[in-house]
Structure formats: structure tokens, C-alpha cells
Amino acid sequence: MKRKLFSFQRFLAIIKKEFIQIKRDPISLRIPIVMPIVMMLLFGYAVTTEVDKISTAIFDQSKTQESREYIDRFVASNYFVVKYNVSSERELSDLIDGGKVKAGLIIPSDYANDIRKNRTPQTQLIIDGTDPTTARTALNSGLLVNEVYSRTFKEEAMKKIGSSALKTPGVSMSSKVWYNPNLESTRFTIPGLVGLILQNITIMLTGFALVRERERGTIEQLIVTPIRSIELILGKLIPYIIIGYAGFLFSLALCVFWFKVEVTGSLTLFLLLGFLFVICALSIGMLISTLAKNQLQAMMVTILVLLPSILLSGFVFPREAMPTAIYLIGYAIPLTYFLDITRGIMLKGIGPEFLWNDIIALSIFMVFLLGLATLRFRKSLD
Amino acid sequence: MEYAIEVENLTKRFGSFTAVNNINFKIPKGCIFGFLGPNGSGKSTTIRMLCGVLTPTSGIGRVMGLDIVKDTEAVRQNLGYMSQKFSLYEDLTVEENLDFYAGVYGLPKNVRDARKKELILMANLAGKEKSLAGTLSGGWKQRLALGCALIHKPKMLVLDEPTAGVDPVSRRVFWEIIHALSRQGITILVTTHYMDEAESCDIVGFIFNGNLINEFAPPQEIIQKENAKNLEDVFITYVERVTNTKVSSTFKEMKFLHSNES
Ligand SMILES: Nc1ncnc2c1ncn2[C@@H]1O[C@H](COP(=O)(O)OP(=O)(O)OP(=O)(O)O)[C@@H](O)[C@H]1O
Ligand SMILES: [Mg+2]
């Protein structure tokens, strides 16, 4: 009897068996739900949103209508929450030293006077620099509020005085007015998370797929059957494609409905390319599975793959800012291409004509990794 | 005579360690061959080579006339293997395990159901079809493994310590099945550390440190030749001869010595 090159029946038997095993393993089933929630909340909130509502102390020496208006502007920006009103610089610095407030605003006693006399009043914003992220946000927001205020103030002055007699002090409007650091970082991080989560789920689950058979000894019984490597590898992939893709859809839903980062471009295209990336990530996991002898090894190799992919793919830091060598390593990581695709479609709304490079690169990765995994899997224990 | 297994100068080395050293033997078709030897003597390694799980370092092996290296897949098609460690899926039920192997061996649907029924009956598994394999007790597990190994009606059955950790009654149930299968003409290679089981084999052979230490022969013949009471004594005599040391007393004597000391 000749053994078929590819038997659909054997392939189906593997798929069915894997499905039953996944069904009975609560962890595999929960990962596509739990992981997106945990990761999204972690990266989405802990990293960004915390920096609005900076606790602030105010030292208002002017105590005038004008100074109160200025303070109101700060409060209205939502970046600052006035926790204390103090009456000395000493008191203010104590609050900052004690960590009670992250920022202090000092308004000089001649503030209103300066304004009335058309001079630029000199206010002071003190920021606790120990947490650079908060500090930077506080600084940017403070400057922003100040400038917006100056501008309206200037416009009013112009109306009053007339455009020819422009004697109000030079308040230069920089692009910073339009720059919203909080929103930008969410928009940068959250869509990237969709790809990252997808990758983590699939690599982790498949990384163990073959190793488990080896560790439990079931591989020995499998070896003596007529099964072929390609049937085994593909048969094991199918159920995980579904789990991985479910995780992808779920994190995309969180991204759109919870974080309100909409898909600007074609959703269909994005869903399609997400599928391509799932298979690509699964192949990485499968390759790990053929390399590792036990679950511990699989775990270590998985971490070895995941860590650089988080750092070098451009998920956290823009790749353009990296040294050339590191930048080039990024090209060896499939996630890099998918992040390009994700940000391209979700944020910029560009179509496939701008994404061909990424699509081709991912396809090559998929074929190469899957082929390698199949070749590496030998039906023997040598 | 036609042989089910022919082995010539078969050797397996793991690095510099020789697990199986240049062994030669022939097993006629249709008999039950008991492969005996102390722990770590190379029984499992020999078996794994015959099943194509390990590749021989050198030498030739033929199963049903097929070369174990060149025609590995054809050999596997002819042989049912039950490994030493329970290696079915513990998170699958009895029925699901049988279904899986039926699918992997390419049994058509109608054949499969009939075969499954037959095997459940033969292996005494009735009533446990829906139990997870992991929850079965030792004897049941081993019978399920036997059922799965037989799903494709192999001409030869290779059983590596099928009764390890199985109670005396279940051991007898298991060996009843082995003898029934043998009567159907299936050749059986079985390893065991129970000499009472081994005495019911048609031929037995001893291996020690990777070397064969006797001419394969029926157990009664060997017992007579060595002038021993039973196969257990033969086993001990062989080990003493090869290692040149005296194996201490019988279990009865051990107990006697201890009760004297106290
Ligand atoms: N993969 C391997 N790598 C290195 N050494 C091995 C390997 N497999 C087996 N061995 C060694 O080969 C020797 C023979 O092992 P084998 O499993 O064949 O013994 P056995 O006769 O089946 O013993 P037991 O009765 O305990 O099952 C042992 O010393 C074992 O440690
Ligand atoms: Mg053994």
C-alpha cells in the first residue's frame, strides 16, 4: 500500500484531536480574551492616561480678577488639578518635596499690573522632575495653556487697541498648541498593541504544541503511525489560527470601542492582513516547538523571541531613532512589518499600494518559517 | 522458515555509550517472543529501532522482511507498538483516542466503527468509552493502549513492558488477550520483568548491558538446561554469571534474616 503524500483524513484527525484538547484546556481558551484585556489596560492606561490631572499647588501673589482668570485656564485644561493654595514659596517647595503635588504655579504680585500696563507678566511653573513622563507632560501642558491664554489675551488686546498699534509683547505661537502629547501616545501605542497581542498569543500557544507531545511521550506513539510531518504541523496550526484570530478581533474591538482609536483605512484589508500575520506568528511558534525539548526550553526561547520583537519592532520606540545596526535587525522581525501595516491602515488610512513591501515580507516569512518547521520535525527520537 | 524479525549485528550508541551491542537474532512468525533483561540492558532501545523510532548506529534489521531503515514506513504499517511509558492522550476519552488513531491510520468510517466495537470488546473496555484516558486505572490504561496499537490490524505487535504497574488480576486479563491475539496468527514481541509471564512465551531471549546472553529458546528448555526451578532463577543465574557476583538470597531469606536481627 502506497502512503499518500498528503492525506486529508489524517490531517482532519489531527485537527479534531487538537480541538478537543484545547476545549479541555481552560488556559488556551481564556488567553485570547484575557491577554488583550490585560495588555491593553496595562499599556493603554498605566503608560499614558495617568499624566493628566497633575496635582498642583498655586501661589497666587496677585490675587486679582486677572490672576484668577489665568488659574482658571490651567484648571480648564484638565491637565492640572489644584490641590492647594499656598501663601509662600517655602510652603510650595515643601509640598513638592513631600511629593504632595507634582507642579507648582507662582503668579507674581504685579501680575495684573503688568497686564494693564501691557508688559509681559512673568509667571513661573515648577515641576517635579523625578518622573520624566509626568514632568514632560506637565511642562508641555503648562506652556500650552500659557500660550493659548496669551494668544486670546493678545487678540483681545489687539481688538481694543487696533491692529496698527501692536505693542503687546511678542508671544510666538508654535505648533505646540496643536500637539496633544496624551492623545498622540495612545494613538501610537494602542494599535501597535493589536499586533503585539496577536503575536504573543499565537507564539505562546503554538510554542508548546509539539513540545507537549514530546514531554508527555505521546510523540513516540505518533511516530509509529503513517502521519506525515506536514499533516501534523498544519493540523496543529489550524485550531490555533482560530484562537489567535479571535484574540486579534477582540483586541481590535477593544481598540476601536474602548480606546476610540478608529480604523481610518480599509477594515477588510486590515482583517485580511491580520490573518496573514496570525499564520506568520504561528509558524514562529511551531518552529520553536520543533527546536525545544521541553516546555521550559520552549518558554525560554519564546521570551528570547518576544522581548526583542517588543523593543526593536518599533512598538515602543520609533525605529527611525535607532542606531543603524539595531534598525536593520528590526527587519528580521515579522512584527515590524505588521506594525507598519497597522499604523498605516488604522492611523494614516493608506491602502495596499503603500503596503506592498510589508505584505510581501510577511508572506516570505510565513512560507520560510513554516517550511523550516516542517523540515525540522523528524519522525524519530534520535 | 519465515521470520517476523531478523536482526544482524544491530548496534545503537548514544555518544560513546553503547546501549545495544552488535546483537543477532531471528524470531519466527506467529510466536510470542519474550525479551528479557535487567533495567537499562537495552530492551527498549532495540524495540525502538525495530519500530523506526530510533535509527540504528549500524547493523541490519528486518521486520516482516522489510528493512527497518529503508522501508521504515512500510514496517510501521505492519506493526502495532505500545511504548513503555503510557503514551496516549490523557485528556481524550477512550473513544476519542481510538477515533484519533483510526483517523491517523486512514480507516474508512464504516470500517472504523466496527473495528472500534471489536477492540473495545477484545480489550475489555466496555463501559469506559466516555472516560478520559487519564482517569483510567493502570490495567485499563494498558488495555486501551493495546487497543490503539491494534487499530490497523497489524501483523506484528510490539509491547514494551505492558504490565508494569498492573495488579495481578489485570495482568492475567492482559496476557489472556496476548495469547488470544497470538492464536489469530499475530507475532508478538513483549518485554517484561515478571518471569511468570515470561514462562508463558513461546521463545525467550535475555539481553544484558546491550549483549545477548543466551540462545533464544522456549522457556522450559532453558530452565532444564540451566537446571533451575523456574525462569526467575535462570534470570538470576545469568546475571550472576555475567557480572561474576552473587545475587543475595531469596526474598524469603531476606525476611528471615531481618526477623533474626531484631
Ligand atoms: N536517548 C538516550 N540517550 C542516552 N542514553 C540512553 C538513551 N536511551 C536509553 N539510553 C541508555 O541506554 C541504556 C539502555 O536503555 P533501555 O531503555 O533500552 O533499557 P531497558 O532494557 O528498556 O531498561 P528498562 O527495563 O528499565 O526499561 C540505558 O543505560 C539508558 O540509560
Ligand atoms: Mg525499557
Present the secondary structure layout.
The complex is a heterodimer of chains A (382) and B (262).
Chain A: H1 8-23, H2 26-46, E1 54-60, H3 65-76, E2 80-85, H4 89-97, E3 103-107, H5 111-116, E4 124-127, H6 132-161, H7 181-207, H8 209-216, H9 218-223, H10 229-258, H11 267-291, H12 295-312, H13 324-329, H14 334-348, H15 356-376
Parallel strand pairs in A: 1-2, 1-3
Antiparallel strand pairs in A: 3-4
Helix pairs in contact in A: 1-10, 2-7, 2-10, 7-10, 7-11, 7-12, 7-14, 10-11, 11-14, 11-15, 14-15
Chain B: E1 3-14, E2 17-28, E3 32-36, H1 43-50, E4 58-63, E5 66-67, H2 72-77, E6 79-82, H3 94-104, H4 109-122, H5 138-149, E7 156-160, H6 168-183, E8 187-191, H7 195-198, E9 203-208, E10 211-212, H8 219-225, H9 231-243, H10 251-261
Parallel strand pairs in B: 3-8, 3-9, 6-7, 7-8
Antiparallel strand pairs in B: 1-2, 1-4, 4-5, 9-10
Helix pairs in contact in B: 3-5
The site of magnesium ion has 4 residues of chain B, from helix 1.
Give me a quick take on this structure.
The complex is a heterodimer of chains A (382) and B (262). By secondary structure, chain A is mainly alpha-helical.
Describe this structure in words.
The complex is a heterodimer of chains A (382) and B (262). With 382 residues, chain A is mainly alpha-helical. Chain A has two domains: 54-178, abc type-2 transporter like fold; 184-381, no CATH class. Chain A is 65% helix and 6% strand. Chain A has 15 helices and four strands. Chain A has a four-stranded mixed beta sheet with strand order 2-1-3-4, with helices on both faces. The longest helix of chain A is centred in the middle third of the chain and has 30 residues, at 132-161. The two termini of chain A are 27 Å apart. Mean pLDDT of chain A is 82; it is low at 163-183. Chain B is of the alpha/beta class. Chain B has a single domain, classed as Rossmann fold. Chain B has ten helices and ten strands. In chain B, strands 6-7-8-3-9-10 form a six-stranded mixed beta sheet, with helices on both faces. In chain B, strands 2-1-4-5 form a four-stranded antiparallel beta sheet. The mean pLDDT of chain B is 92. Chain A binds chain B through residues 1, 3, 7, 9-10, 12-14, 16-17, 20-21, 24-25, 216-227, 379-382, and chain B through 48, 51-55, 73, 76-77, 79, 81, 83, 85-92, 96, 99-106, 148. The complex binds adenosine-5'-triphosphate (ATP) and magnesium ion (MG). Adenosine-5'-triphosphate binds at residues 14, 17, 19, 37, 39-45, 84 of chain B.
